[in-house]
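Exercise 7b. Backbone tokens:
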């Protein structure tokens, strides 16, 4: 299916919905039980142009589409939203930004078409917060690159055809890191297995080990620039996470408010109790403010402003808000909310990942804090003036 390049944002949202209408709802129920997404579901999204059209207006020009994709997919299935985010915002994002040679451009086209599906491997068994501590290595050989290492907690590894791996190239630059395209069917690449997780169960998370010889075009971009590349790609991932979280929060609130209007406790509806009404009103207010902040951050990014700190700050705050909102909504549902007959407990488990994945809270807090370390001429001068005048009056 081809979509006109001039598709408006509304058309794009309709396009994602149209793609989801083609996914068999009966089969969807099995994804979380199996713990895996079928690759065909991403191919179906691709066939409708979901990924190609996200990137048609460019990386930042397409940010409103990134948000629409995250909202529509996470309302349908949170694990699908996570898998599509890795494929689109990291794998396609890296290829469309850095893909230079013919084989890389061809792989980008395969990724748009859903014939290639990408996942991202930065985290290793010894740690994920400190990318500078990555131990996987890439060594240049006459035929190409020898990649040796292991990646853990790779989302959607089971459905992927390619891993975008961060590896160390000794002596190449500031942090010696680089990005590599690793076909998962290459000799010497072994998917070791998967981990059972608290939430987002339809998107698997696995471990892959490699000792493999890759062609020269496996290197994406320049050696030594891997940390800078990964940091930029993670900004898009973080925006998508914010949109996914806010969708979960809004759905939880909508359902909790409906329950509170209908559930009779004592002599009237639960929503007549001021404590409950206020709890939900606070949730509504927090989600509204967080939604406005997301739109503002997207607008800044679309206008071409640097927004790494803003995105980090947004993710920190949105995680905090949505974790609280889903917990409050589950509380309003009482025992029903804790059972799997209702989706509250699922949203409550799903959103917990966001404080760890895509940059853990502590790592993002350090990034935000780095802003405070910069001298600020206005307030530094003001403090000097106040300090000079800080004497007791006679
Ligand atoms: C479901 C799931 C999916 C994932 N998908 C992917 C994926 O697709 N690709 C990928 O590469 N990774 C993925 N991850 C891994 C995730 O990115 C890492 O878990 C995360 O970066 C944290 O790394 P870690 O778990 O090794 O924790 P560690 O690095 O061991 O840190 C443990 C804790 O200490 C905190 N900490 C670390 N340093 C400091 C410090 N200096 N000061 C204070 N606190 C600190 C951390 O914030 C964290 O809370 C996934 C994880 C999960 C659970």
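Sequence design result:
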């Amino acid at each position: 299916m081809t979509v006109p390049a001039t598709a408006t944002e509304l058309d794009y949202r309709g396009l994602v919905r149209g793609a989801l209408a083609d996914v068999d709802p009966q089969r969807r129920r099995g994804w979380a039980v199996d713990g895996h997404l079928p690759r065909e579901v991403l191919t179906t999204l691709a066939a409708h142009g979901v990924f190609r059209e996200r990137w048609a207006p460019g990386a930042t020009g397409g940010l409103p589409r990134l948000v629409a994709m995250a909202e529509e997919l996470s309302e349908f299935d949170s694990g699908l939203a996570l898998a599509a985010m890795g494929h689109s915002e990291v794998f396609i994002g890296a290829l469309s930004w850095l893909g230079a040679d013919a084989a890389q451009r061809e792989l980008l086209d395969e990724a748009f078409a859903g014939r290639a599906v990408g996942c991202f491997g930065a985290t290793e068994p010894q740690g994920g917060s400190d990318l500078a501590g990555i131990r996987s290595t890439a060594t240049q050989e006459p035929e190409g690159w020898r990649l040796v290492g292991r990646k853990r907690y790779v989302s959607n590894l089971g459905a992927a055809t390619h891993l975008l791996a961060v590896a160390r190239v000794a002596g190449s630059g500031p942090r010696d890191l680089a990005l590599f395209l690793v076909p998962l069917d290459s000799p010497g690449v072994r998917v070791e297995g998967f981990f059972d997780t608290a939430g987002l169960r339809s998107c698997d998370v696995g471990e892959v080990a490699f000792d493999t010889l890759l062609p020269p075009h496996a290197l994406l971009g320049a050696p030594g620039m891997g940390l800078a590349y990964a940091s930029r790609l993670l900004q898009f991932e973080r925006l998508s996470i914010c949109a996914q979280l806010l969708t979960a929060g809004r759905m939880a609130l909508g359902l909790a408010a409906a329950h509170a209007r209908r559930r009779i406790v004592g002599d009237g509806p639960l929503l007549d109790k001021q404590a409950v009404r206020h709890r939900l009103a606070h949730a509504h207010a927090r989600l509204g403010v967080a939604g406005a902040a997301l739109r503002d951050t997207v607008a800044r990014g679309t206008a071409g402003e640097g927004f790494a700190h803003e995105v980090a700050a947004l993710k920190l705050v949105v995680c905090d808000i949505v974790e609280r909102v889903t917990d409050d909504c589950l509380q309003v549902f009482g025992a029903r909310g804790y059972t799997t007959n209702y989706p509250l407990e699922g949203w409550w488990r799903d959103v917990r990942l966001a404080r760890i994945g895509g940059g853990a809270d502590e790592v993002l807090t350090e990034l935000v804090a780095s802003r405070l370390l910069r001298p600020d001429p206005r307030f530094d001068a003001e403090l000097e003036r106040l300090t000079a005048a800080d004497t007791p009056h006679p």
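Instructor comment: Residues 54 and 66 are 6 Å apart (CA to CA). DSSP finds 14 helices and ten strands in the chain.
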